[in-house]
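Please review this pair:
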Amino acid sequence: MYTQFFGNYLLSHGYVTNEQLFSAMQKQSNEHMRLGTLAIHAGYMTASEVDQTVIQQTHEDKKFGELAIELGYLTNDQVLELLRSQSPDFLLLGQVLVDDGVLTNTDLENIIADYRSQNELIDLDMTQDSHDNIMKLLDNFFIMSETPLSHYGHMYLELLFNNFIRFVGEDFTPLSSEECDAFPVECCICQKVLGEYEVSSYLNMTEETAIAFASRYVGDTFTEYDEYVRASMEDFLNLHNGLFIVNVSNDSSLELTISAPEVVTDSILDFQHRTYHFPMLYSFGMVHFVLEVVKAPE
């Protein structure tokens, strides 16, 4: 989940625009991680040393690692370690932004250090998501978005982000959330969680985005917005909310139920309770998730 929050970090701090991030996300799947980016992340080389090595490559037909060793920036053991390492996905996003000229290697070096520090991600090897680290990222995301959520709200959103990753794809960035009183509807599915913690959840997107979303979710190819696409959106929302009520039951023995998912036919949603909008920027389009908190335990 580090890549998703890294994209949000870049946006919220003004390093990139929505358009630049969207473009980089689309290119990311076709790129491979370079040794220089890995060396910066590991702290073995500075951005300046990486730049000098790349310049040297324009004069000598040698691999980056070979030149870095000759220049005294890396040892042979460090090169082997980097080549064998499993790099965190967010580095590849940063590398594409450097290739696009949006960031420099120096920018990326400083951003990685600040990102770790702000989110208290001390371990350099962030390839394995830990619960504690994810909770720190979530907390900082909600603080920056000024979104006050309860214990169950945090549970709901942590599961939601994980389910987007597991069932739709990792190539998204959650944009800053916001409270809203109304929301315009395009292709929208709604489902309620009922009981002592009661929320109404809405999954909304354009027809084109819905087709791509459903194609990914079911592993098939849809070409038009039809009942199969709508059924796929309903199934995702039903799966997510079903997993949530199971988690709540295991966490606190609070027994909740869910309604059947429904297609929203109104053109605008009007809310009577505190409602949050969570936009997700995917490489295929924008997915909007809206959560209305009807009732929360004291």
